[in-house]
Design brief:
The radius of gyration is 20 Å and the shape is globular. It has helices at residues 2-10, 16-24, 29-34, 51-77, 90-98, 112-118, 124-127, 138-143, 147-155, 167-175, 183-203; strands at 105-106, 109-110. It is built from 11 helices and 2 strands. It has a domain at 138-203. Helix content is 55%, strand content 2%.
Length: 210
């Protein structure tokens, strides 16, 4: 909860699209600067209408298409499963996009129309039960069984950030303590390091690979 509150406050003064990108990003602009990396600002979305329409289109074209669906497809196909997402049926998507804002979000209530429709078939204790996230315990893993491996990845040469930057390793030592809240950012950097090592091997470069 403290992590979420900090992110909310840090982005409170930004305009709507920038605030949304800040909220959903794994690496904050402040951390990018500490790492000596230049922050890139994506082109504004080609959309008009309510802010919610614009933000949902961003999610549809980025995190959903390039992230969640890609990972779900790889995970399912690795077990020879055909995965389908009924809510992404074209007619369902077109209907959802045509709903007024108040039928999608009302205050802090989300999925307003969907939940009201679901009450036809499910008891309210199911429809309105507390959301259960699917996040993995990255912070605990990085403090425990993955600590040595993570430290080696963040300290390896050719890992994708300037070698003169002390940021990743020093932040790792702080974040793997009980008070750390940078697990998502660290995981992003670790994955970057693994990808750079893999790419170097594919090219036959002598960079560290393992």
């Amino acid at each position: 909860m403290s992590y979420l509150l900090k992110r909310f406050v840090a982005g409170a003064e930004l305009e709507s699209v920038a605030r949304h990108r800040h909220w959903t990003s794994s690496v904050s602009p402040q951390l990018l600067r500490r790492l000596g990396l230049e922050e890139t600002t994506p082109d504004p979305p080609d959309a008009s209408g309510d802010v919610l329409d614009i933000l949902q289109r961003i999610d549809l074209e980025t995190s959903l298409a390039e992230g969640l669906l890609t990972k779900a497809d790889r995970a399912s196909m690795s077990s020879a499963l055909e995965l389908r997402a009924p809510y992404l049926d074209q007619t369902v998507m077109e209907f959802a996009a045509a709903l007024p804002v108040k039928e999608r979000v009302r205050g802090v209530a989300m999925k307003v129309f969907l939940k009201r429709f679901a009450l036809r078939y499910l008891p309210s204790r199911i429809v309105y039960r507390r959301k259960r996230g699917l996040s993995v315990p990255l912070a605990r893993w990085l403090r425990g069984p993955l600590h040595g491996w993570a430290a080696s990845r963040l300290g390896m040469s050719g890992s994708g950030w300037p070698e003169s930057t002390p940021g990743p390793r020093s932040r790792s030592s702080r974040s793997t303590g009980r008070g750390g809240d940078h697990a998502r950012a660290l995981w992003t950097l670790i994955v970057l390091a693994e990808w750079v090592a893999w790419a170097s091997c594919k090219r036959g470069d002598p960079a560290e690979s393992g």
